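re: that complex we talked abt at group meeting.

here r the seqs, copy pasted straight from the sheet so there may be weird spacing, ignore it
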Amino acid sequence: MATITEQPPETKAKASPPVNSQPEAAPGKTLVLGAVFGLIFGFLLQKGGVAKFHVLIGQLMLVDFTVLKVMLSAVVVGALGIHFMHRAGLVELHIKPTRYASNIIGGLLFGVGFALSAYCPGTGAAALGQGNYDAIAMMIGMIGGSYLFAEASGWIGRHIDPIGDRGKLTLHDVIPVNRTGLVVAFAAVLVIVLVAIETLGGR
Amino acid sequence: MHEFMHRLGGLGDVDPLQYSGPAWSPYLVGALIGVLSMLTFYFSNKPIGASTAYARIAGMIGLAVAPKHTRSLKYFEGKPPKVGWELMLVLAVVAGAFLAAWTGGELTGKFLPAMWQDRFGSDSYLLRTLVTLAGGVLMAFGARMAGGCTSGHGISGTLQLAIGSWVSAICFFIGGIVAAMLMYAT
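got the structure back, here u go
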């Protein structure tokens, strides 16, 4: 488990990765990079159709699988790419903690909100750019909900987060086989899922 | 039950597939988002995530309105509410999506999405505002509690094979499917 978060080995020849995650360290460059990546991300989300109200609702009604196709394709490419970049010492991993109670309760709450607004935090911003003005209401709600969570964060941190807290748990900890082999097998399973979705029809 | 709801709200039957699909292949778009993830890990040492940006804005407003109280909240400890990478990312997503919709002739420029309007009526502005607002509140609370959103857990977390991210992402869809079926299935 500790191997996940440790620094990449010192084998890198050039261009050491930017290890500093503090925004104030290099504000200008950090902000510009955020803007460039956001511009590309927003462009792709809109072209992928996931900024559209009916595409998201269609996914939740299990008739339009565009959202899953985009997400799983991203995961296949990203999982392989980031695994090999990490192996080469080029990037650090950023694993979020597994806390079963908070993951499940928070996840279900998020899902209901996802269906109500038909946007998620990223695709809602893309929907606004596309001209869906109702996304502004979602964004105002997100800001209010974030503060509401902050109000409750002390209590949740004491009472809910500790339930099923497993730390930075990954599939590598559960299935202790060769890491590269596991990532390749994982990607292969997702490709099979994508092929199955495509074969079974729907959009 | 459905008959009752129909009569109660005058709901229209809707089929999501009768509206336009994605402009580009979802596989191509997904693969490119995967490449984009590699770039953000390499150049910014950060995973793509959207929900944190809203929490940063909430913190900034909180600091302006009630600084003492906001600083006392656990969530904002160690997460200084500042304009940072995440907020720039989300602001730029708006611009990037505008460019994509504009070049593709897909700008909508409406408050009520077409499918919503067909379901709930062309005068359902107040209902849409309240439902969307409530959706935003629930999503933010849920995302903060679970530790991420559809981007942070659903893509960035799952691609690192994080168990908590897979559990969260599956719960996003379970909650969403149940709620969407109740709202839209005929």
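couple things i noticed - Chain B has a mean pLDDT of 93. Chain B touches chain A through 134 residues (CB under 8 Å).
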